[in-house]
Amino acid sequence: MSFQEQLQRLRKEKGLSQEKLAEIIGISRQAVAKWEVGKSYPDIARLIALSDFFKVSIDKLVNDYEENCRLSIEDNKEDYINENIIQFLCTAKKATYAGKGAEVQSSRPNSHDLQYTEGNLKYIDTYLGGEQFAGEEALWKDDMPIWVMNYNGRIICEGFSISFLKEALALVSKEHPYRGPMVYQNGQYKYHCIVNGKFEWFHGYEEIFFNDTKVYECIFHGGCIK
């Protein structure tokens, strides 16, 4: 079922008009109408609001997200971004936080820092906090910054598993080199990740459910450095 079909079904099940849903979400009726006929698509913030309001996960709400929000890495990238750099990013992610890599010396008071280097490429992930956290991942080539991703997340309630989060993040791929895969499930845990944009400029959202209860969420965005 497409997003527009899902939205219409959920709205009608609650007995809401387009006007009323628009009022609840804080947008215009015309925007809802365009979503329902497939003429436009909500951004991450609106998808989160719809997911929270209808009490459904983003992947259930956006069943055809692979067509609407999937990563598109095009062949005509800037010269300094190529397949080898994206592969390096994935390797670095798997070797650091997702792979339970050792932290290096803090760059700021009480920060957690992880680093991976290969030839002239360097990856640094630094974050603050724990249950509520914020951080930044970045790439350097020949000591010049070329790409960055900022993230901000929180543990919502009991049931969260850091081991499951790292398990999902370890599945990062060249086709989706941000956080984890779009959907991953292991037992009672389910991970979702949705991205708008391209490697050069993007924003996204990830969440974890435990027994159909959302226990974790994280927003991220970034792009190339010029």
Automatic annotation (TrEMBL):
Keyword DNA-binding belongs to the record: yes
Keyword DNA-binding: yes
Domain of life: Bacteria
Domain HTH cro/C1-type: 7-61
Family annotation (PROSITE patterns): HTH_CROC1 (PS50943)
UniProt xrefs under Pfam families: DUF5680, HTH_3
InterPro entries associated with the record: Cro/C1-type_HTH (IPR001387), DUF5680 (IPR043735), Lambda_DNA-bd_dom_sf (IPR010982)
Entry's Gene Ontology molecular function annotations: DNA binding
Record's keyword terms, sorted: DNA-binding
UniProt-listed CDD domains: HTH_XRE
Protein's name in the database: Helix-turn-helix transcriptional regulator
